[in-house]
Design brief:
The structure holds 2 protein chains of 2 kinds. Chain A is of the alpha/beta class. In chain A, 30% of the residues lie in helices and 24% in strands. Chain A has an 8-stranded mixed beta sheet, sandwiched between helices. Chain A is globular. By secondary structure, chain B is α/β, with parallel strands linked by helices. Chain B has 11 helices and 12 strands. Chain B has an 8-stranded mixed beta sheet with strand order 6-7-8-3-9-10-12-11, with helices on both faces. Chain B has a 4-stranded antiparallel beta sheet with strand order 2-1-4-5, with helices on one face. Chain B starts with 7 loop residues before the first strand and ends in a 10-residue tail after the last strand. The chains are: A alpha/beta, B alpha/beta. Chains A and B meet through helix 6, helix 7, helix 8 and helix 9 of A and helix 6, helix 7, helix 8, helix 9 and helix 10 of B.
Chain lengths: 329, 328
């Protein structure tokens, strides 16, 4: 399969003001992340709040500039393309946001919402062509042509998310960043949107980066899953392998914390207070070390690299590397 | 519904809201009970009436626009709904306490944890600041907060979401209420933190013998800690039973549809079940069974007659004219 996206040590830092004196400090939200995505693949990027998954997604669509590192789209290094010429790439990379209640302008009709991107990218010069394209896109997401003249508040949450999906699809993109596309929705609506995304991916020939905190959503949707913790990818594996044979202790903690819907599978709960370290004061080595049951001395030295343990299964953990006989990596 | 000696029993609750567009029939025919020491889950989607139910039990419902049209809430030998507004102070906080979804908005940002926790205790128990401080330290310790004395001096923004929710639980338990209502207590939290909060709730039930009503939209959360479950749809309780029975043999078509719409964690599926249609507008709820427009099993009677709660199996109540045989 052809590679569509490649990240090389992509890093994003933010300056934040802290404390009474409002001193400026720098935090690293995304820390030297490298991976690639093949054409037609769906990557699930999972992690808890503050792990950097949304920052990463925003860099890919151009809403944030990386502090360091490079981002290649279909082999082109986007950082070296002059801003004015990036537009065509921007068309090919689109994003769907989490909350369809705030991502749609309440003063615009569905027609206005969908014609804006066409105007921005100079697509469909005739008004008849525009109408036809909007109509077709609405139908592809399960809405009707008569919805065109309505305003966002006239729709339910699920329908609004369909409008948001339509807005990203109308410019005929190739790569979609889906940032928690269903977490603002109820379960019965979530399943409709997830089914829709899955079928659109096939019919429209798309590649997805699905950002989610919900592992069951990524199990349904993704081919490969990457687990992010405090700005770094700690494990990356094909879907089945991640669920059946995960290796990183954080992945294990995450998976075991998710409540099962089968009450017969209840697990004993630990009463521990387990706090995520602050990004303002990250641990010197592996960022999971302070919470890790497998911690050893080397873990405090430097962050462990993401190493292949088997096939396309990668883990960033000294204990796992040691076990695999790759401890010197 | 019958029950030997429930701690809380809610009977035929009907609640309306007056709005500019008309009367919202928020709750209709809501009945359930809770035994001492049990954890009852109330599950439902947005607008199903689960929070209104909780607010009504604790008499926190804003009236107007809310109005309790009918029903009884029996707790500790009396019908709470018969109490005068001015006479509720020994129920709220003392007999029934409540925690909310977002601990940041429930805590006051300009006061320290100590000030907020001791205020509650001094008000309800009429004790000195000194005694209240001692009690606050005790309950913080109870919910496993490391170094309670240090945490007491902090402001809410200095603490993590999980810590804040622990403090809310501690504060809610400080007046020794025997019933805790938790409204989406873990929705704003990450899964690893959620797990810890659920563990604390279980532990409090064990150590203090309290009963808990847990309101949530997350089936996983109820499956983890609840004993019984009430499933709400469009302002009514459609199914009520032990959590095991509801999961293994859901009898209401809505419960069945909901359970199968959740993406499974333990296996990969190609397509998810969906429930056709939309949640009804409660300004004009469907006649008869409120689920009938979306139900695949509907018959002419479903449009005409509201289904009564029937005991289809021991302790398993369903409001449906044509309940499923059971099984997933």
């Amino acid at each position: 399969m052809q590679e569509i996206i490649r990240l090389e040590k992509l890093t994003r830092r933010f300056n934040v003001r802290v404390g009474y004196l409002q001193k400026v400090r720098s935090i690293t939200a995304v820390d030297a992340v490298s991976f690639s995505i093949s054409d037609g693949e769906t990557i699930g990027l999972v992690g808890e709040s503050g792990c950097g998954k949304t920052t990463l997604g925003r860099m890919l669509v151009g809403l944030l500039e990386p502090s360091e590192g490079s981002f290649f789209f279909q082999g082109t290094h986007l950082g070296s393309v002059p801003r004015k010429e990036r537009k065509e790439y921007r068309r090919k990379i689109q994003m769907v946001f989490q909350d369809p209640f705030s991502s749609l302008n309440p003063r615009m009709t569905v027609y206005d919402i969908l014609s804006r991107p066409l105007k921005v990218f100079g697509l469909e010069s005739t008004s008849a062509g525009k109408r036809k394209r909007i109509q077709d896109t609405l139908e592809s997401v399960g809405l009707k042509p008569e919805h065109m003249s309505r305003y966002p508040h006239e729709f339910s949450g699920g329908q609004r998310q369909r409008i948001a999906v339509a807005r990203s699809l109308i410019v005929d993109p190739e790569f979609l960043v889906l940032d928690e596309p269903t977490s603002a929705l109820d379960v019965s609506v979530q399943s409709q949107i997830l089914n829709l995304l899955k079928s659109l991916k096939k019919t429209e020939d798309l590649t997805f980066l699905l950002i989610t905190h919900d592992l069951s959503v990524s199990r349904f949707q993704a081919d490969r899953i990457m687990v992010m913790y405090m700005g770094r990818i700690v494990e990356s594996a094909p879907r089945e392998l991640l669920f059946e044979n995960h290796r990183h202790p954080y992945t294990r903690l995450l998976l075991s914390s998710i409540p099962q819907i089968d009450p017969r599978k209840r697990r004993d709960k630990k009463l521990s207070v387990d706090e995520v370290p602050s990004l303002l004061n990250p641990p010197p080595g592996c960022s999971f070390a302070p919470r890790c049951p497998m911690k050893r001395e080397i873990c405090d030295s430097a962050p462990p690299p993401l190493q292949t343990v088997e096939g396309s299964h990668q883990v960033a953990c000294y204990a796992v590397h040691e076990k695999e006989g790759k401890g010197q990596g | 519904m019958r029950m030997a000696n429930p701690m809380l029993s809610v009977k035929d609750l009907k609640v309306h809201f007056s709005t500019e567009e008309g009367v919202v029939q928020a709750l209709d025919n809501v009945s359930f009970f809770l035994e001492k020491g049990q954890i009852l889950g109330i599950i439902g989607e947005t607008g199903s009436g689960k929070s209104v139910t909780a607010y009504t039990i604790n008499r926190l419902l804003p009236m107007p626009p809310g109005k309790i049209v009918a029903g009884e809430v029996w707790y500790d030998g009396e019908d709470i709904l018969k109490r005068k507004e001015s006479d509720l102070v020994d129920i709220r906080g003392k007999k029934i306490s409540m925690i909310f979804q977002e601990p940041m908005t429930a805590l006051n940002p300009v006061f320290t944890i100590k000030e907020q926790m001791t205020d509650v205790l001094m008000f309800h128990r009429k004790i000195s600041r000194e005694k209240a401080t001692k009690k606050a330290l005790e309950v913080l310790d109870l919910v496993r907060i490391p170094d309670p004395a240090m945490v007491m001096g902090k402001y809410p923004h200095e603490l993590s979401g999980g810590m804040r929710q622990r403090i809310m639980i501690a504060s809610a338990l400080s007046c020794e209420a025997k019933l805790l209502i938790a409204d989406e207590p873990t929705t704003a939290l990450d899964v690893t933190t959620q797990d810890q909060i659920l563990a604390i709730l279980l532990q409090m039930r064990k150590e203090l013998g309290i009963s808990i009503i847990l309101i949530t939209h997350n089936f996983g959360v109820v499956a983890e800690i609840c004993d019984t479950l009430a499933v709400m749809y469009a302002g009514t309780i459609v199914e009520f039973s032990s959590i095991y029975k509801v999961y293994e043999t859901p009898r209401h078509p809505y419960t069945h549809g909901l359970l199968n719409a959740i993406p499974p964690m333990d296996r990969t599926v190609q397509k998810l079940n969906t429930i056709p249609g939309l949640v009804p507008n409660l300004l004009k709820p469907p006649t008869g069974c409120r689920f009938h427009p979306r139900c695949e099993r509907r018959q002419p009677i479903c449009e005409k007659q509201v289904p009564a709660h029937r005991e289809v199996d021991e302790g398993h109540y369903v409001a449906c004219h044509f309940p499923l045989e059971g099984g997933r």
